[in-house]
Amino acid sequence: MTEVLEDQHIESIPLKGIRGIIAKSLSGAWQAPRVAQTLEVNLRDVMPLIPAMREASGKKITITHILLKVLAQVLPEHKGLNGIVSDKTIEHWQSVNLGVAVNTEVGVVVPVVEYANEKTLETIVDEMGMLANKARQGSLPASAYQGGSFTVSTLGMTGIDWFTPVLNPPQIAILGVGAVKQKPWVVEGKVEACPVMALSLVFDHRALDGYQAGLFLADLGRRLEAITAEALQG
User: Fold this and answer.
1) d(Cα 105, Cα 228) in Å, to the nearest integer?
2) CATH top-level class of 34-233
3) Catalytic residue chosen out of the listed positions 9, 65, 78, 205
4) Could you tell me if 132 and 148 are in contact, meaning their C-beta atoms sit under 8 angstroms apart?
5) Closest CA to 174 of 145, 197, 204
6) Which residues are within 8 A (CB) of 207 and not within 5 positions of it... i.e. 6 or more apart?
């Protein structure tokens, strides 16, 4: 129960429940030797695909859904980032179980889209919508937050350019996604205004070196920039 100390105009909120769980998790994450890398991605060929895909599918497809789909395709080729780490072991997973941060009235929670690498874009859209709605209603079972192998956190809706998210232990890595903004970009020798999004990868250096992480982030950026509607149907 929130206590208001009227004489000092202070609101005192007990650090328990969801906030207590978040605090405990973040404290553990802060102990890991973490490193961050950021890459800007030009979405000039991607953003125009979205209106037609929405019309064809009847679903509210967003750039976040497309990113999740591409991630699910790329991570199996960079297994060093897909899994968990402890003081004694590193586990690389074959299945891609994507945790997606969802803001709720009681704090940020991370439900998991299981086996995302085996799901279509439309299935990911439906499942992510269901998980987000139930998370905000507080009706998801505890199992819906377990078993993630990689996490995505987006602040695009706030207008933030880029940020470095905190690791979601025991996972090896997390991807922070900024807003899509018009920025000058050199295209075939000419400067154009293009929709650009920053991707920030934070990873546990115990499990992964910077070179491997850089290869993954560069590959993800290239694949996202070059994605086609046909490739998203797989």
Assistant:
1) 36
2) alpha beta
3) 205
4) no
5) 204
6) 80, 83, 85, 90, 172
For tokens 């978040």, name the residue.
22
Question: Residue 127 and residue 78: Cα distance in Å, rounded?
Answer: 24
**Any catalytic annotation for residue 65?**
no
Q: How far are the Cα atoms of 41, 81, 95, 177 from residue 221, in angstroms, in the given order?
A: 6, 15, 21, 12
The SS3 of residue 183 is strand
Beta bridge mates, 210: none
Number of C-alpha atoms within 13 angstroms, CB side, residue 106? 17
CB 131 within 8 A of CB 120: no
CB 202, CB 167: distance < 8 Å: yes
Token pair 């945790």: residue: 99
Task: Supply 45's token pair.
Answer: 């060929």
| pLDDT, tens digit only, all 234 positions of the chain | 555 555 556 666 665 665 555 566 665 656 777 899 999 999 999 999 999 999 999 999 999 999 999 999 999 999 999 999 988 899 999 999 999 999 998 888 999 999 999 999 999 999 999 999 999 999 999 999 999 999 999 999 999 999 999 999 999 999 999 999 999 999 999 999 999 999 999 999 999 999 999 999 999 999 999 988 888 876
* Secondary element (H or E) of residue 187: strand 181-187
What are the strands, taking DSSP E only, across 52-180? 83-85, 90-92, 98-100, 102-104, 107-109, 112-113, 150-154, 173-177
Consecutive H or E run containing 198:
strand 190-204
Say whether 143 sits in a helix, a strand or coil: helix
